[in-house]
Specification:
Elements lengths: L4 E5 L4 H12 L3 E6 L9 E3 L7 H4 L12 E4 L12 H23 L7 E7 L10 E2 L9 H11 L2 H5 L3 E7 L1 E3 L4 H11 L12 E2 L1 E3 H13 L5 E5 L5 E2 H12 L9 H8 L1 H7 L4 E2 L2 H5 L9 H10 L1
Parallel strand pairs: 1-2, 1-4, 2-3, 4-5, 5-7, 6-13, 7-11, 8-10
Antiparallel strand pairs: 9-12
Helix pairs in contact: 1-7, 3-4, 8-12, 9-10
């Protein structure tokens, strides 16, 4: 069933911004949780997960936005691009686990809770698994990121126990020229300085931004979906194949690999668990429910997102 009123947290990021546009064009009323510049009559409500108070929050919501049909939770500090210092590890955990717990407490405390909560997660939960094909029934992996994702998903148990249908969106590498990994790579590749990361043999599970937005809405509307779903294309590629394809699309050489040792030196454990980790993930649950990707192959996907 198509929702009429949706609560959204994390609307300022790459995925959230694209989702807001899609919700607008589908005439879905959206209540956004923000930290700055609230405007309740435009659906922008101030909310701080670390100091959330339901008694103060609920009266700030215009009644025209209630009751909510669904909640979509996309908040979380960026995993990539930072060394995982002890302080940044705390920020990663608080921005995911603590906010999810606080949001679930808020939703459960509403006079009429939404029927579904769709929460961001990541395929990092599987860890570095070589050539193993991974689906939603695969066991979690090892490492900081895998542990963090498990805590992140477990944080929504309060909502599940209250009868809310909970879906965990395990995102792969999201392709967009507006942000994320691809946007960071484009200036380097356009200069002809791109190349494999390490030996390039690690598997990369990717998905286009338009398909991410479609998958989120599909998860909200599909009653049969609950628990984890992998939001990735059915066709993962190795880093070497991705590198060659991006170079071909941009008409640039890709002959300058970045040694794994250099990545480890610069980024430490973050490089080991993201840039160099091999995660060959497939979207079994989405496929079983009849979801069809607009972009299934890497070259057409890159051409599409770079042409937008």
């Amino acid at each position: 069933m198509k929702p009429a009123k949706v609560l959204l947290s994390g609307g300022s990021g790459l995925i959230g911004s694209a989702l807001i546009e899609a919700l607008y064009f589908q005439s879905i009323t959206t209540l956004r949780l923000v930290r700055n510049r609230p405007d309740p009559f435009r659906g922008l409500v101030r909310w701080d997960a670390r100091a959330s108070d339901l008694d103060q929050f609920l009266p700030s919501i215009p009644q025209s936005f209630l009751p909510l049909d669904a909640a979509i939770h996309l908040s979380g500090a960026s995993v990539a691009g930072h060394r995982w210092t002890p302080a940044y590890r705390r920020e990663l955990r608080e921005s995911r686990v603590a906010t999810t717990q606080a949001l679930c407490k808020m939703l459960v405390g509403m006079p009429q809770p939404p029927g579904v909560l769709v929460c961001a997660s990541a395929i990092g939960i599987y860890g570095n698994r070589g050539d193993e094909i991974l689906n939603e029934s695969s066991r979690p992996g090892q490492g900081f990121l895998a542990d963090l994702c498990q805590e992140w998903e477990a944080a929504a148990q309060l909502a599940e126990k209250a009868g809310i249908r909970v879906v965990h969106l395990r995102f792969g590498v999201v392709l967009s020229k507006s942000g994320g990994a691809l946007a960071k790579l484009l200036p380097i590749f356009k200069l002809g300085l791109g190349g494999n990361l390490g030996n390039g043999e690690q598997w990369m599970s990717w998905v286009s931004l338009p398909d991410v937005v479609r998958a989120i809405l599909f998860a909200v509307e599909t009653e049969g979906l609950r628990g984890p779903i992998n939001v990735v294309s059915p066709n993962p590629v190795t880093n070497a194949a991705f590198t060659r394809t991006l170079g071909r699309v941009l008409h640039r050489p890709t002959i300058l690999p970045v040694p794994a040792a250099a990545l480890r030196l610069i980024f430490g454990e973050m490089a080991e668990e993201t840039m160099l980790a091999s995660e060959r993930v497939v979207p079994m649950r989405l496929s079983d429910e009849g979801f069809r990707f607009q972009h299934e192959a890497i070259e057409p996907a890159l051409r599409a997102v770079l042409a937008d």
